[in-house]
Prior knowledge:
Helix content is 38%, strand content 12%. It is α/β, with parallel strands linked by helices. The two termini are 32 Å apart.
Amino acid sequence: MLVIDNHTHVISPDRERYPVAPVGGRQSEWSQDHPVDIDGLLRALDAAEIAKAVVVQASTVYGHDNRYVVEAVRAHPDRFIGVYSIDAVAPDAVERIKHWQAEGLSGFRLFTTGTTMPGQADWLGHEDSYPAWAYAEEQDIPVCLQMTIQGLPALRELLKRFPGVRVLLDHCARPDLSDGRPYRLAADLFDMAAFPGVHLKLTHRALAAAEKGASVPTEFLADLVAAFGANRIAWGSNFPAAEGTPADLLAQARKATSELPQADQELIFGGTSAAFYAGGKGESRG
């Protein structure tokens, strides 16, 4: 099975060349306690027999300075796909998208929540961000969203305005699954299946949520696939932000998906990611 890790980060040991400038002003604890550089990530992927990885900008370390992700992709284009961070409401947002796409990266991330920025930022869906969304739609550039389920109403409005945008929700938008089937507390997440461009990133955070209360991970995965299709779900380790190695995190995800058909597992662990980032290089598919 081809395995692509859809969510990894890299942290440089060189703070002079890559100074810390986190979104929100506070660096994440994980990036200080157990950072991993480019070579360290490669070793961890090799140990887990993971073919490729999406390197997502560590927004809680470098903010919107994506140069270390560029370095990773340029050094190992056969192993890494790069996702950069931007300020979508900035006046130069489209120019920054053009810049980072030209540097070889493959889509942008909007950071609207996280361990250093709890809650859901209210700028998601602001009209100042419309040019960035319009450009992403026009050029078929993927958008990765670090958000909570509370932000889904704003996302729905954006996708009504820009229906052609393909989005990927980090951690499945952090749903509350504790009530178990039929997951009424996560109804807003399942409702997003009506938007064909919405994809989900299955990480340790989503799997941990699926173990709480009355929820059962295998049941959650079955319902998620029934709603979205496996071709819209992609596994990511969130290494090194997550505790454990990519091999550990992959084993956890394999267990949760073990009752799915083999074809669905192949999509979740590689096929969906390969298709999602097949374009997105700043060129219109026409």
